[in-house]
# Entry
Amino acid sequence: MTETQMTELSAADASARVKELVEDIDFTMLTTIDDRGTLVSRPMSTRQMDENGDICFFTADDSKKADEVDADSDVGLSYCDAKGMRFVSIGGRARIVHDRAKMEELYTQSLDIWFEDGLDTPDIALLRVTPVETEFWEPAHGKVVMAAGMLKSLVTKDAPDDSMRHGRISC
# Structure
């Protein structure tokens, strides 16, 4: 097996691409640390990645994840689009915020499934993650070109062009 070739992006290009990926992939696995020191993950739907890079999710104040964030703000976010071969890993600091204006901006009716009274649901809050370390990987030439190259390599027995575009941002 050959080693994947990486194309590195500048910090500015990487930041812009991360925002696109995070908002396009939508669902992430949020990892927190529970009261026993165990890593715990659950799916979350991204509402926004703002101009500062902060990522917002809706949650409830009385949830286990809110308690875990209060006890230890270090969290991980893992975005995965397996079909598109696009991946984002974010290590950051989380906090629970009660910003009514921001909640009004980000709330949609699709959230009524979890928040019966909409924005008037008791204990509704935002979980805001500020990235500290971010990395992403995606096919350098698009997934169709990558798939065609892999099919070709099956016939020719040559190593496939599996080059990936990679970006890393440290805040």
Summary: The first strand starts at residue 6 and ends at 8. The CA atoms of residues 88 and 155 lie 32 Å apart. The helical segments are 11-25, 64-71, 100-106, 143-156.
